[in-house]
Design brief:
This is ABC transporter ATP-binding protein. With 255 residues, the protein is an alpha/beta fold. It is 36% helix and 24% strand. Bound molecules: adenosine-5'-triphosphate.
Length: 255
């Protein structure tokens, strides 16, 4: 269930401190439901921190952050929000199916749900195209395959919001393309909202909307087309650089 304003995520004055540093600085943004929003920016700009805040695992968060109509991290959001961290979280000594069986049993414990669990595991394996590897030990999989196991775990509960932290990093072009196809299928056919981080600017073109970040601030919140048009550039990467320069000039003039 979305909130009354039809927004999947809404942040107002979102600020996060890590150690003695202010890592996110009073961010205001929204994430549209049923769309793919890309969170792009250079390494260290705060993408993972923002995602951790959205899924409710980040400490020292101030401001307003509402997710699917509830405060971020609210217990009722657990089955509604899927989160895939940068490091794939799989048990290397279990097979692919055993990994999924294990997480399915946490989500839906008890004998009464055995058939539902089996169906959910089979569906998730199919979605990430790992059916042919279901009996392989996770420890013997490639990095990309492990990422897909993590993604399958996140898909077990058919989440309304899927938060993916650099899911395509280190993958070959074919796997990257296949994963992006899956993301678009999830948005189009299931109405899933996806928030996906990347520091690879060419992935920006695959998103419906973009949040461009730099040094804990949001430089732009728009569609790839609108960003290119406004900046008068051919690519989102060039638009990003244009925005960085404009922000630096504004700061300089404000001194
Ligand atoms: N535990 C911590 N204590 C203090 N500062 C931290 C901690 N973890 C991260 N930071 C700082 O917070 C900032 C944002 O980090 P974050 O991991 O959110 O960036 P990112 O954009 O996701 O980077 P990357 O693309 O490299 O994953 C960085 O400058 C980092 O040094």
């Amino acid at each position: 269930m979305m909130n009354s304003s039809g927004v999947a995520v809404e942040a107002r004055g979102l600020t996060v401190h890590r150690g003695s540093r202010t890592v996110l600085r009073g961010l205001d943004f929204t994430v549209e439901p049923g769309r793919i929003t890309g969170l792009l920016g250079p390494s260290g700009c705060g993408k993972s921190t923002l995602m951790r805040a959205v899924v409710g695992t980040q400490a020292k968060v101030t401001g307003t952050l509402r997710v699917l109509g509830s405060p971020a991290g609210h217990p009722t959001l657990r089955p509604r929000v899927g989160y895939v961290t940068q490091a794939p979280s799989v048990y290397t000594d279990l097979t692919v199916r055993q990994n999924l069986d294990y997480f399915a049993a946490i989500l839906q414990p008890g004998r009464a749900h055995r058939d539902d669990r089996r169906a959910a595991v089979t569906r998730a394996l199919t979605e990430v195209d790992l059916t042919s590897h279901e009996d392989a030990l996770a420890g013997t999989l490639s990095g990309g395959q492990r990422t897909r196991v993590s993604l399958a775990v996140a898909l077990l509960s058919t989440p309304e919001l899927l938060v993916l932290d650099e899911p395509t990093v280190g993958l070959d072009p074919v796997l990257r393309r296949d994963l992006w196809q899956l993301f678009h299928t999830l948005a189009a056919e299931r109405g899933t909202t996806l928030l996906i981080s990347s520091h690879v600017m060419d992935e920006a073109e695959r998103c419906h909307r973009l949040l461009l970040m730099r040094e804990g601030e949001i430089l732009a919140d728009d569609t790839p087309d609108a960003l290119r048009t406004t900046a008068g550039t051919d690519t989102v990467e060039a638009a990003f650089l244009h925005l960085v320069d404009a922000a630096a000039t504004r700061k300089e003039n404000a001194r």
